[in-house]
From TrEMBL:
Transmembrane segments: none annotated. This is Choice-of-anchor W domain-containing protein. It comes from the Archaea. It comes from Halobellus rarus. NCBIfam families: choice_anch_W (NF041928), cognate_SipW (TIGR04088).
Length: 445
């Protein structure tokens, strides 16, 4: 029926290296100097070369886990140096529970040039079924609550006489909040000063002479987490996966504003309603819609946004078949969404988004084409890995329904985001005028 209305894990990406220029040969230069034929000399400068420097990032990491006042340093699994391929799973906790806590520390070795450091990350959650005690308190059987239940903070830190010393706090809140804050990239300060905008931070430029090799370093980064005792059965069997990525960009000739963490979101297309085909609950928490209508009296609308059809804010719009017009959907990160179609704007309060975004196109004796789609996550334009257009076309019985889904997750949509694009609606002469026959929806999980 169609409708219109693993346990904790960290992984580090492959290190980021700046390749440089290689070797550049300069032609020899000569100059003749003299006062007469009797006095002359010639000096030449040959085999001049310029060789680019190198920049290589290594990440040293160490983690601990405190359960029942027993601290496990996890030396065999959760400490070492990451230099090259992704670290994979080094923080694998199978049975976390209320009262548990832990931390992960990351320190940076840079060879050979001072560099600006950036951190970015991603988090996804899984419900893994509902236990009998959990069912009594969990009203979202397809959405995991573990990340929202964990209290976390990301801070600068240092080691003093083998003791961990916490420095200035970068961000705190739930674990979902922390990862949302760095999802699109966070500039790190080499001196461990929090709250600086990109371009204001200091590079990592502290020189260290090691036993085998000199390197450059700066402030370490620590993630602290705790599951409060008052958290209840709603997290039973839930799991989450965290991925952290660090980038070093040569500081020379750079100002620190270049963000190497530009996110990429995968898109896919399919047939049917996106919410039923792609959302875990087969329902949307909110939507926006542009439908082809007659610009009639109250109740016969063409533009809407809200939690559902019955409580949506609506407006009228006069379509011109065949014309391409722009649209945009924006969520402010604080419970309010707005939808604009060719200058006509509506706004509404909505529940907090929790996952995927989608566009559904519906056509009955018509063609609906959505193109030039763009996604912005908290002010950062996203690279779409996949199609940026979707269309439906029908000339016969029934209607065609197709969709494009953005594979975003809870951390991606915890803050402000926006979808924009162009839409073209072209109805045929035998279109019956059904209010839901020709439309496109923006669905939010």
């Amino acid at each position: 029926m169609t409708q219109d209305s693993e346990p904790q894990l960290y992984s580090l990406s492959r290190r980021k290296m700046l390749a440089g220029l290689g070797a550049v040969g300069l032609a020899s230069a000569g100059a003749g100097l003299g006062t007469s034929a009797y006095f002359s000399d010639e000096e030449s400068f040959e085999n001049n070369t310029l060789t680019a420097g190198t920049l290589d990032l290594r990440v040293r990491y160490e983690a601990s886990y405190d359960s029942g006042d027993t601290v496990e340093n996890m030396a065999d699994a959760a400490m070492g140096t990451q230099d090259g391929s992704p670290a994979g799973m080094f923080y694998d906790l199978q049975d976390v529970k209320p009262g548990d806590s832990g931390h992960v520390e990351f320190c940076f070795d840079i060879v050979d040039n001072p560099a600006y450091m950036w951190a970015c990350g991603d988090l996804s959650q899984a419900e893994n079924g509902i236990t009998e005690p959990e069912s009594a308190v969990d009203d979202t059987p397809e959405l995991g609550e573990l990340g929202d239940s964990i209290v976390a903070r990301l801070s600068y830190c240092d080691i003093d006489d083998e003791e961990l010393v916490e420095g200035e706090e970068i961000v705190s809140g739930s674990l979902v909040d922390v990862f949302a804050a760095i999802a699109n990239g966070a500039a790190l300060d080499g001196d461990g000063v929090a709250g600086l905008a990109p371009g204001e931070q200091s590079p990592y430029d502290e020189e260290v002479v090691g036993d085998e090799e000199a390197y450059i370093t700066g402030a370490c980064l620590c993630l602290f987490w705790e599951i409060p005792y008052e958290v209840g059965n709603e997290i039973q069997s839930d799991s989450l996966t965290m991925a952290l990525e660090f980038h070093a960009l040569q500081a020379r000739h750079n100002d620190g504003t270049t963000n190497p963490c530009t996110p990429t979101v995968t898109t896919r297309t399919g047939e049917g309603f996106a919410k039923q085909q792609e959302f875990a609950t087969e329902q949307e928490t909110s939507f926006a819609r542009g439908r082809f209508g007659n610009n009639g009296p109250s109740g016969s609308w063409e533009v809407a946004v809200g939690p559902d059809v019955g409580s949506a804010d609506t407006a009228n719009y006069v379509w011109t078949p065949g014309d391409t017009v722009s649209f945009s959907y924006a969520y402010d990160g604080s419970g309010t969404a707005s939808f604009t179609l060719d200058g006509v704007n509506v706004g509404s309060g909505i529940p907090a988004p929790s996952g995927k975004l989608a566009i559904t196109t519906k056509a009955d004796e018509a063609t609906v084409s959505v193109a030039n789609l763009a996604l912005d996550l908290d002010g950062v334009p996203v690279t779409l890995s996949g199609p940026d257009a979707i269309s439906a076309s029908n000339d016969g019985s029934g209607r065609e329904v197709t969709y494009l889904v953005f594979d975003t997750d809870a951390a991606d949509v915890a803050n402000a985001f926006a979808i924009s694009g162009d839409v073209t609606v072209d109805v045929q002469g035998d279109y019956s005028g059904s209010e839901e026959g020709v439309a496109f929806d923006i669905s939010v999980e």
